Amino acid sequence: MAIPERPRSLRTALTPTRELAALRRHLDTLSKIALLLLESGDEQTWVEVLRLLVETTEASHCCLFLDTSAPDGSPAARLAATWSAAETSWLANFGGFRVLFYDRVPNLSDRLRVGMVFSATAAEFAEEERALFSPAGIGSVLCIPLLVKGEMIGFLGLFAVAPERHWEATDVEVLCTVANELSLALVRRQTESALKASEARLKALVGVTEDVVVEYDGAQTVHQIWTENPLVRALLPARPTGGLLSDVLPEEMASALVAVARDVLRGVNRHAEFTLHTAAGPRLFLGRMQRLPGEEGDTPHIVALLRDVTDLREEEARRKIMVDTLNLLDEAIIDLDPAGNLQAASAAWHRLCGPMGAAEHSLGSLLQYIQADDHQQVLATLDALVSGEKKLATLRFRMLRPGSEQLWVECRLLAVPGPEGRVVSLRGILRDVTAMYLQERRIRQLALHDALTQLPNRILFEEHLQQGIARASRNGSKLALGFIDLDHFKHINDTLGHKAGDTVLLTLSRRLAAVLRESDVLSRWGGDEFVVLLGDSSDEEDFRQVARRLCEAARQPIDIEGIQTRLTLSVGFAVYPDDAEDAETLTSLADHTMFHAKNMGRNNVQFFREIQGTVLDRENVLLQTRLAQAIQERQLQIFYQPVVDASTGRILSLEALARWHDDHDGWVPPDVFIPMAEHLGLIHELGEQVFEHALDRLRVWRQAGHEVKVAVNLSRAQLFAPNFVERLTGMIADQGLSPTDIILEITESVALLDVSYESRRLQELADSGFELAIDDFGTGYSGLAQLHQMPVRRLKVDASFTTRLHTEDGQRIVQAIVQMAQALRLETVVEGVENAEDARYLMQLGVRQMQGQLFGDPMPAGVCDMLLARQAAQRS
């Protein structure tokens, strides 16, 4: 805002006392006016401001004029507010002051428009000014322009009756400041009015369209909601703004807006689609999102325009149905009587059935064009339509076409009722679906059969199993489910190659299928595992005979490139309903029994009921099932056990350990559920979950300033999974960490199974920056030569040795291990340290890093947070 220029002719000389009193009076007035204009900008406030100015300056009258235009377009000023020191304002009876035309007072207008103060007495009035002010008894005038960016929007006028009133300089300074404040207030009022008008227009627009407009920010706080949609308004609280999306909006709407918020704030165009359950039923909404730039210091907002597109989608669906129906006109159209005789047919019919339908007058019965095997289903469909059981029917059948391949036709028939309601005709649309049928059959074959052996795969076999159980339940008979594992098949793949392995599997599948009964089902379960379903028997001895034939068929030699190969099988059976009454439990028991057969030395058949400790085995199978569910639903917990510097008590690293609390059995020991996870093939998923949790916690600890490492155990399945190192380093980089922050622990038995192969993967991990440790050292079969080849930096002595430190032999063994590690320049970590006496002995041997009950049991991450924070506080 610009400050008006003060005229030089104003009187400025005052005595010090008067000048001080005037200054105090003006400052007090300015303070009051500033508060008034901050609180409100309405006409009543303007009147109060003018009253204060009259009292402060001792003028007779004070007026506020705002620029406007006369009906003819000429510039003018409209009286917006006035105050008079007299009891009755003279302005009330002076019409000339309601609108002041600038062209009638050019001297006043010119000075104000250039930003100058206009001050004059009666003796100084120009002719035009005298004609305006003298009839009203005005002797002195002081006018201050209201300026916005150098442009006048009105002026403030003070009038005195005294003909020779001279205005003090402080009066003018006050008036100029007030004029500036008024200008600001007017601009603010105009802005607020424009915003209210825009909001009113938006509400009107939203009300007309029944759309929903929601403004919210990245913190999910709702700032505005506009809608006149009665269904949506009924779901909103009385005060829908200021709360979180999840608290204000219906769940479906809030979830959809939250899901796209992050992308929209990044400038990515996203749409939201959700179904809102209202009193009128489910309504489909489609939302368009727009990012609004925030004001300085504020975060950007998002405006979501949500439109109910239910009716539009339904209309689109109706149009699509109509289009699909019209598209059918390209197919053959026939008209049948209730008996199934052709009454009429389109030209496409004759092309469809070939020479048989060449003459329209010889149409005859529909059945004469259809293969005999399909007559029954066609007649049944016709009867259902004619009887009124169905109004519309779809069926497929094969048409007779002499001299050509089999033709599959899809027919849609519609029952047409007569005036009395009885079906008088049947109208149908037929199309050639031969290519589609063959493709579907091929897809079904691929989806439900093994690509190598063409046997039913797991999906199709499970259907056969369910059907077999239902049939056995109805007939009161038994069925047997057997898992078949090919012994030492990995050796064939490794020595003769995968092609030879495929030959073995294909030959074996054919031999096994050849000895089965017609009612039996053989399936390839995966890899070198087959599953067989033996049904329709009341005597378990029948199952045993088939099992013996299967084993004998497998023992027949297979010639592979001149090499005679003989195979053996490990087979496990579970019988319905003796062992289990549902498919899932029966499958688990059979699988468990097969593994028992392998553990019994392979090349044998076992039945579940013959396994020793049947009850315990059943509980074990159920425990495996619950473990698989717990891993899939990420229900296992991750605890951490510290590794400390025994000389200082400082935590050096934390080992991540999986713990499982089963709802049925409580806490299950790791030495129970870890082998189960390996047996179930879920050890990889379990290891991934432990690693992800460990990385997340390590990031939190590092952000808190704790310089600790995290140790994670690796299984063989993880260690040799494809692209394991790349995936591992990628996960670490995503958390902002480095491989040097991680200790990877590999058990001695895993690390040293095949040194020439394992060492390559271990070297790859070491080259990436990971610190490698041999866990449970001393329980395997390693030697100095093997350890020397491994790129490991530390040995973790198994707790079984620590428990024997109270004996002389135990001390000698641990001392030998420590000396060997020192000779190989490896760090030594001793596990299972439970008392101070063992810790002192180990420190005498030079061991500094220890782990065990003495320093802390495995504990939740939250407890580790407190330990690390306490350690940091003690160090500081």
TrEMBL record:
Name recorded for this polypeptide: EAL domain-containing protein
Superkingdom: Bacteria
Ranges for domain GGDEF: 477-610
Residues in PAC domain copies: 393-445
SMART domains, A to Z: EAL, GAF, GGDEF
InterPro entries membership: Biofilm_reg_signaling, EAL_dom, EAL_sf, GAF, GAF-like_dom_sf, GGDEF_dom, Nucleotide_cyclase, PAS
Annotated Pfam families: EAL, GAF, GGDEF, PAS_4
Ranges of residues in domain EAL: 620-872
